[in-house]
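User: what does the whole thing look like in 3D?
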Amino acid sequence: MSAEIVGGILLAILTLYAVLAGADFGGGLWDLFAGGEARGRPARALIEETITPVWEANHVWLIFALVVFWTAFPEAFAAVMTVAALPLWLAVLGIVLRGAGFAFRKEVQGLRFERPLGATFALASLLTPFFMGTVIGAVASGKVALDAEHTTLAAWTGATSLLIGGLFVAVCAYLAAIYLIEESIKRGDALHERYFRRRAAIAGAAAGALSLATLAELHDSDGALYRSLTGRALPLVLLATVCGVAVLVLLALGRSRGLRALSALGVAAVIWGWGVAQYPTLLPGTGLTLFNGSAPHASLVAIIVVFVVAVLLVGPGFLLLFRLQGSRLLESEEPPGAA
Amino acid sequence: MLASAREVVPARAQMASTLGFHIILACFGIAFPTIVLVAEYIGLKRSDEVAMKLARRWSQALGVLVAVGAVTGTVLSFEMGLLWPGLMRRYGAVIGFPFSIEGIFFFLEAIFTGIYLYGWRRLRGWAHFWSGIPVAVSGIFGAISVMAANSWMNQPGGFTLRDGKVVAVEPWAVFFNRAAIYEMPHMVLAAYMVAGFLVASVYAVGFLRGRRDRYHRLGFAIPFVIAAALTPFQIFVGDTAARAIAADQPVKFATMEYVSHTSREVPEYLGGVYVNGHVYLGLAIPDMDSILVGFSPHTQVTGWDTVAPADRPPAPTLIHLSFDAMVGLAFLLLGAGLWALLIWWRRRALPRQRWFWWLAAACGPAALVAMECGWIVTEVGRQPWVVYKLLTTAQAATTNRGVIASLTAVIVLYAVLGVATVLILRLLARRWRQGDEGETSVPYGPPSRPAEASS
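Assistant: Here's the predicted 3D structure for the full assembly of 794 residues, as structure tokens:
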């Protein structure tokens, strides 16, 4: 029972990381495609302003996920870290370059410095979601063997891995665009509301197409996972579909209420759909499950307690941070009276 | 695959360089918020605009350092698995608990850093000050949690092994292991000394260049007083730690002090190079090591001859000289603090002697070097073990080849990152100085940067 709870906690943390930090990575992608210096400046400024106070806090979910993973399921953790070492190093590279590029760009003035730092930030924002996606793909498609001693290219460059890598990038872009619609509305910026509406629709359609492609690919390559996704996990798959379609409809109608909640729910449904489909297997193809692959009971209980404490302590903190950010109280950049 | 065939040396080099780099930023993450808050407190309490300006500007520098620290810290989290899967497979369930506690504090730190750093304009006065308190507090407790994990590797306990597998864990016994009691305060104090002396150094250099207005004097005094006041406590903690290591990890201690054979009346070597069983160029103080360990010349000190050569740490010279450098620099820092204290006691002012300011400028780098030396002593001194007497570093290392590639990438990347961070901080300083020339000071105003930057 405790192993199942911790498995759920791990999925919950991954969901929070995907929904919150995913939007920050997606912001980098829209920064990348914002166009030339003069044309892209307003969109880039909006992206920077909305990411700045929150990205570090959102990023901590990843650290928390790593710690919970290795504490609760040490064998699976060690296997993933061995087999998928290369894409994980590349994801880490993306994290370092993204964070540093972003933090540095904010402090420099003048195009000579802003451009290379901005490009670093934006390109690095693509690396991390893509390579993390390939790692998830490697796990889901049973490419992570327990006794493997080396990382192999084949483990994470299969069609499933590449599709999921692409899907992660599209989802980040989608979440970011939806978030930026809301932020544009708050600022009374109709121009960027339309701008990000268009982009949200494109990214949403791309994410939907990639999801379908992944399902089709699994149908051919991984019958077991496909059957679970269309069997036990079907309600969640349907929920994700409904949310995605609803968001696209709202976008087309020009509505904005509920966009964020629906998009987040859709992404959460995908993650939990994967979890439910794979349950109780930890690493498909290895026989390692939540039960035979979990840490001693006391470690699991400790994780559950720490998670509950974290939610109680950190939850209000996050709400405060997002509230202050949402009501635009966290900007030190503008001259007084401009807001 | 044989453990010895693994690329353990590049893996250790990579862990050492990434940890050695991150720990500098971690020191700022742990201690700098307190220094900023002290300045803000003075500013609010006495309506002191100079102190407020320092707090605002320091918080901007803190923002850069925290961001770089967040990403370099993430690298370390991944490296736990990417470089040491053998450690995590065997002991992940044990060592994870302190890291999960650290996760909570890292969260609180990141959340309130976001509020504190970007709330200068809208959160007024004391509300803003209080939003920084959780940052300072969680910095300290986060450090304590990470040190719980590190000290556990030195004094592992709180779990039961059966057939080489961990079958039961007592989380709090893991957290408060035997080495935690001295490692935790040692690192927290080190963080305050490194951050305090380094920030003070910046203003000491300014002083030497003739910038002696109240802004620079206060910018020096706040961090210097905090760091110097903690130095005697650090020396006490360090001395206690050394004695505990003599008892708990005698071979590490023997290497720190060049004790090759278990004996009494052991001399204390100051400096010296260990080659082929001889200590060259060292100053030997008779009986002193025995006295330091047990307060009597007759105290028996365990030598490294008690374990097989393969179980001894490599590079005794590196370990010994690092230990001596750490201790020596600590006394230099103590001296600088006492000098300032003496002058303050006599004249209620900062020292005027140019020599003092040269020394003060050197204190920051000295504290930094002392801390890095301390890490060399504890980490290299624990070899060949990653978990003392239970798991060797070679057994823990990744079986993947090509660690040399990630090592090279990390060295290049971190060199660029380090240079860029310093350049950005210098850029901020230059902008502040330019701003001072035409700035009208606005209490709680935006950090002094031109408005067009936000457009």
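In plain terms: Residues 201 and 361 of chain B are 4 Å apart (CA to CA). Confidence is low (pLDDT under 50) at residues 439-455 of chain B.
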